Amino acid sequence: MVEHTFSAELWEYSPGDPGSWHFLTLPLELSEEIKFEAGPRHGFGSIRVDVCIGSTAWRTSLFPEAATGTFVLPVKEPVRRAEHLRAGTACDVRIQVGAPS
Questions:
Q1: pLDDT tens, residue by residue, 35-80
Q2: Residue 99's pLDDT is what?
Q3: Is the separation of the CB atoms in 28 and 68 below 8 Å?
């Protein structure tokens, strides 16, 4: 597996909606690297990754964002709660590409 680190600001898909998804947008340059490393993609062009923010680690997928050419990383509610994150919070992220399915 290939490991990367980056920092990004957490954003909310539908502000004000209590069930709204929250995401981090990967930097364009990192997104380009990951496209080459990942190999075959899964449904919706997703790429399986292992993620760590603070002391919380989980397995998820990156999803392509067609308008910008980057990937977005969903950050689920239990992670946000454990790490005290909300929209607008800057996050230091470690991801490993090539997580087994």
A1: 888 876 667 789 999 999 999 999 999 999 989 999 999 999 999 9
A2: 54
A3: yes
User: CA 60, 66, 69, 73: dihedral to nearest 10 degrees?
Assistant: -20
pTM (two decimals)? 0.88
Q: What is the 3-state secondary structure (H, E, C) of the chain?
A: CEEEEEEEECEECCCCCCCCCEEEECCHHHHHHHHHHHCCCCHHHCEEEEEEECCEEEEEEEEEECCCCEEEEECCHHHHHHHCCCCCCEEEEEEEECCCC
Rounded Cα–Cα distance for residues 11 and 87 (Å): 5
Taking residues 89-100, report their average pLDDT: 88
Q: How far is CA 74 from CA 26, 48, 64, 80, in A?
A: 11, 12, 11, 11
Which residues are CB-contacts of 99 (< 8 A; sequence separation ≥ 6)? 1, 48, 49, 50, 59
